[in-house]
Specification:
Keywords: Antibiotic resistance, ATP-binding, Nucleotide-binding, Transport. The protein is α/β, with parallel strands linked by helices and 325 residues long. The chain is 34% helix and 26% strand. The protein is built from 12 helices and 13 strands. The strands form 3 sheets. Strands 5-6-7-3-8-9 form a 6-stranded mixed β-sheet, sandwiched between helices. It has a 4-stranded antiparallel β-sheet with strand order 11-12-10-13. Helix 6 links the parallel strand 6 and strand 7. The longest helix has 15 residues. Bound molecules: adenosine-5'-triphosphate (ATP). Adenosine-5'-triphosphate (ATP) binds next to strand 2 and helix 1.
Length: 325
């Protein structure tokens, strides 16, 4: 079979590992056997707590650091060649901007370093910076400076845009404005991969969420799949007869059932339906419905009580159960 350009993933990591070996102290495994394929045009959020390995992963995709092991391709080639060809660019959390230049001068200056940059005015418009074009960088707010970094990243008109916590330190309004700008740009079919701590950002902007903890992927799915897995409600009831447990497990929308003596606890995305069956059909008593918060479940997915990562998805589910108890 002939592999076409279209078949090639935007990003492909196979069993990628990154170990840091500090001069003193133990080696740190920041990324541990990561398998990840991101198709062209996907918008993917990489979520995880501090130290999960998000930045290290994105740095490897950008060719800023090399993997210790495994296979990593960006648009079918090594990361550095992809960056050099202008196919990949990044908006990083920090990055030198010259304070005395205006916004337009900054974009013009950086544009002059590319062989075929996008027109400066187009880029200013895409980043929502037209009204600020003559403002000095030193007078721009943190959010505005971040939009300027975004404008610079658009200059090579990259196929893949990588953003590492692009809204860190912004207030709510600036964050909203930034994502509004990004949303407009995403309609152009660019692949966007961004790291964030904020579930709401991932939920609002990404189509797919990859959750990392301790260098592993602990969950990977569409935004709604992840939300369904980690959201929903807990219905608990007294039901001494365990004869209906299997039938309950098979009900649509039932994710999990646990029994402790006479009491069952069911995780479901349709608590009304489950409560109806329990009360009307099975004569259960003392039915109690409680919410499972997305944030709690996220914490359960990414870190267990002892600070260890769940090694696989089943374990992650188990941890949700444990946390829910
Ligand atoms: N240059 C380095 N030398 C040694 N250890 C490092 C280095 N860079 C990262 N690490 C370690 O690797 C692990 C993963 O770090 P990384 O920055 O990738 O996580 P992260 O998910 O991006 O975290 P954050 O959200 O805090 O930015 C951490 O334990 C970190 O301390």
């Amino acid at each position: 079979m002939v592999t076409t350009e279209q078949d090639t993933a935007a990003v492909e990591l196979r069993d990628v590992t990154k170990q840091f070996r500090p001069r003193s102290g133990q080696p740190v495994t920041a990324v541990d056997g990561l398998d990840l394929r991101i198709g062209r045009g996907e918008i993917v959020a990489v979520l995880g707590p501090n130290g999960a390995g998000k930045t290290t992963t994105l740095d490897m995709v950008l060719g800023l650091t090399d993997p210790t092991g495994g296979h990593l391709r960006v648009h079918g080639t090594g990361p550095r060649s992809a960056v050099a060809a202008g196919r990949v660019s990044a908006v990083l959390q920090t990055g030198g901007l010259l304070r005395d230049l205006s916004v337009r001068e900054t974009v013009r200056l950086v544009a002059s370093t590319f062989p075929q940059p996008a027109p400066v005015d187009d880029v200013l418009r895409q980043a929502g910076l037209q009204a600020l074009a003559s403002r000095r960088v030193s007078k721009c707010s943190g959010g505005e400076q971040q939009r300027l970094r975004f404008a610079l990243a658009l200059l090579p008109d990259p196929d893949l845009l990588v953003l590492d916590e692009p809204t860190a330190g912004m207030d709510v309004t600036a964050r909203r404005e930034f994502w509004d700008t990004m949303r407009k740009d995403a309609r152009n079919g660019r692949t966007v991969v961004f790291a964030t701590h904020y579930l709401d950002e991932a939920d609002a902007f990404a189509e797919r969420i990859v959750m990392m903890a301790h260098g592993h992927i602990v969950a990977d799915g569409t935004t709604s799949e992840i939300r369904n897995r980690v959201s929903g409600r807990r219905v608990a009831a007294d039901l001494p007869d365990s004869g209906a447990d299997d039938a309950l497990r098979r009900l649509p929308h039932v994710q999990h059932l646990r029994r402790e003596r006479d009491r069952v606890t069911i995780h479901t995305t349709d608590s009304d339906a489950v409560a109806r069956v329990l009360l009307s059909d099975l004569g259960a008593r003392d039915v109690e419905i409680t919410s499972r918060s997305l944030d709690d479940a996220f914490a359960a997915l990414t870190e267990d009580r002892h600070g260890r990562a769940p090694a696989d998805t089943d374990k992650a589910d188990q941890l949700i159960e444990e946390t829910a108890r």
